Amino acid sequence: MRSEEITLLLPREDRELSKALLDAEIKYETPARDRMTFDSGDVVYTYISLLLYSMPLARVLIAYINKNKHKRIVIRRKNGDKIDMIGYSAKDAEKLIKKGDVISVEDKKG
């Protein structure tokens, strides 16, 4: 991962989010190991440039959690802090996402 990127962990079973990224013309890179068929992980590691895609990414993520009420999107910082993106606008979410963050989709509990 380069310094201006974030890591987005895309769930393999959920094609909706990856389609939304493509529809928003957000380009991302995946390491070669995630493209191999024998990799049985639950997520695909994707690397997205914040310099190019910060607002489109924020819009896609907020639209995704607004549509999928049983999911939440969590930002994890290098220092261990966690931020749940539920309740934020796309504009606010754009300000929350920082270089080096790891963003994941999780099921809501309860």
Helix fraction bin: 25-40%
Distance between the termini: 34 Å
Strand content: 25-35%
Number of strands: 5
Largest sheet: 5 strands, mixed
Q: How many distinct helices?
A: 3
Query: What are the secondary-structure elements, in order, as H or E?
Result: EHEHEEHE
State Rg.
Answer: 13 Å
In words, what does this structure look like?
The protein is an alpha+beta fold. It has three helices and five strands. The chain has helices at 15-23, 50-67, 90-96, and strands spanning 5-11, 43-49, 71-76, 82-84, 102-107. Strands 2-1-5-3-4 form a five-stranded mixed beta sheet. The longest helix has 18 residues, at 50-67. The radius of gyration is 13 Å and the shape is globular.
Short structural summary:
This protein is α+β, with helices and mostly antiparallel strands and 110 residues long. The protein is 31% helix and 26% strand.
List keywords for this structure.
110 residues, alpha+beta, 5-stranded mixed beta sheet, 3 helices, globular
